[in-house]
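ligand=zinc ion
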Amino acid sequence: MQTIPVKASKSYNVHVGSKLLPTLGERLADLLPPPRHLLLVTDDTVAALYADTAADALEKAGYTVTRFVFASGEASKSTATLLRLWDKMAEVGLSRTDAVIALGGGVVGDLSGFAAATYLRGIACYMVPTTLLAMVDSAVGGKTAVDLTAGKNLCGVFAQPIGVLCDTDTLKTLPPEIFADGCAEVIKYGYIGDKELLCLLETPFDRAPERVIARCVDQKRSLVERDEQDGGCRQLLNLGHTGGHAVELLSSYSISHGRAVAIGMMLAARAAAALRLCEKGLPMHVENMLKRYHLPTECPYTARDLAEAALRDKKRRGDTLTLVLPRALGESVLYPIEITALERIFALGGAL
Ligand SMILES: NC(=O)c1ccc[n+]([C@@H]2O[C@H](COP(=O)([O-])OP(=O)(O)OC[C@H]3O[C@@H](n4cnc5c(N)ncnc54)[C@H](O)[C@@H]3O)[C@@H](O)[C@H]2O)c1
Ligand SMILES: [Zn+2]
């Protein structure tokens, strides 16, 4: 097991390793001594696989556990589910000293984190991520949210969890396409700032993911510690995401997030090479890496459509936009542009 201590506005540990889920009760007891009431929040897919193990571990440690299970999928990251979750918290009488346990992927984590941060003005939330994406990205760093009809993640707060437990054995039941989506985010960490991670990724890591996940978490830790509220260097995590979000939108979400980010990283790498920001060989390195993990590298949309879709983003402000572009192998930089330049950059990136 590897432990990464995060020192943000609140300090907490992220544990990464195998056979950790059965130890959930002991881990939590170190932070919040029992007896207490816990609400175990999960989706129906994850509930069928892991809720019993998690609940048993917590009950053995002396906690009272109530389960809240909702239908799996992004559609559940809604104000409707949030309302039901808040009502459940009140119905079972959770108090300020009780806690929420978020067992599942990013949908469970974002929704539970938001509910916990707002119920009684904030109770503790412990994250138990079960997807690769959630382990390396959403469970760490304190961004919580639900989606609105107008767009994804439009309503949320920054609230750090009290701890994160990544049991890598849970990844064995992930459908291959969901694992591949997480791989796009893992690869992203390599190109943002970790050349050694890129070397590790030369060999597929699915059988021994602990080291790779811990490196990703450590990089997220470093960015979150320096810029918790996302006004500066934390934006490096958006590598591949300006193009990626546009691809997701234009495909009406039929191209998944990870695949869209892979295409977005390819656009960024080709644009950076065309702008002579990085060496000519870097796009080929990115392309080979993405192909190794069965991710797409060609963009099916025109530069004009991509730019139009990217600029529809509700969270954008003003006439400028900050892109993330690779400068060298294992190093990316923030690259502010006028929004009018975006179409040209996508064209340089190889869009149609
Ligand atoms: N808070 C952040 O900083 C942050 C960062 C990135 C993404 N996100 C959010 O994360 C969400 C995406 O997360 P995700 O990709 O984990 O999606 P998800 O939570 O929907 O999980 C994907 C699918 O995998 C299933 N699943 C989960 N664990 C499993 C397991 N171990 N075995 C088998 N099936 C399993 C789920 O039931 C679901 O059907 C999005 O809503 C996104 O906005 C948040
Ligand atoms: Zn992402």
